[in-house]
Hints:
Elements: E1 12-20, E2 23-32, E3 37-42, H1 51-61, E4 65-75, E5 82-84, H2 86-103, H3 111-116, E6 121-123, H4 128-139
Parallel strand pairs: 3-4
Antiparallel strand pairs: 1-2, 2-4, 5-6
Amino acid sequence: MAQTHMIRSMTGFARRERQFPWGMLAWELKAVNHRFLEVGCRLPEEFRAAEAEVRQTIAGAVRRGKVDCALVFRATAAAGSLDLERVLLDSLTERARQIAERAGPAASIDVMDLLRWPGVVRDAARDLQPLQEAARALLG
């Protein structure tokens, strides 16, 4: 007579996204079975200060498993509200030019890649508190 066993999987995926007037927030959580609780976080620069709180929130809801969470933030920029960190941009541009010279004629510098570098573009008018509160509520 064959025995049957119930397997309780700890594997899962969840995505929750919400659009706000200032942009879109989306949480993605992936979990796999693991003997202990191990939480990995990928957060945009604007949310790095809240990493400990994110880990604590997940630990309050999950006893064990390997949980990877990622927050995606796409800002809706108001006209004229973006500032460039010019010293950092100049340094990146110079380094990219040096690398392109060494790589030869096939190398090129993509301006959008430079602008995506953390800290190059900042929104001087954006208050981070509402962003962080919205991310916290969406994670919950």
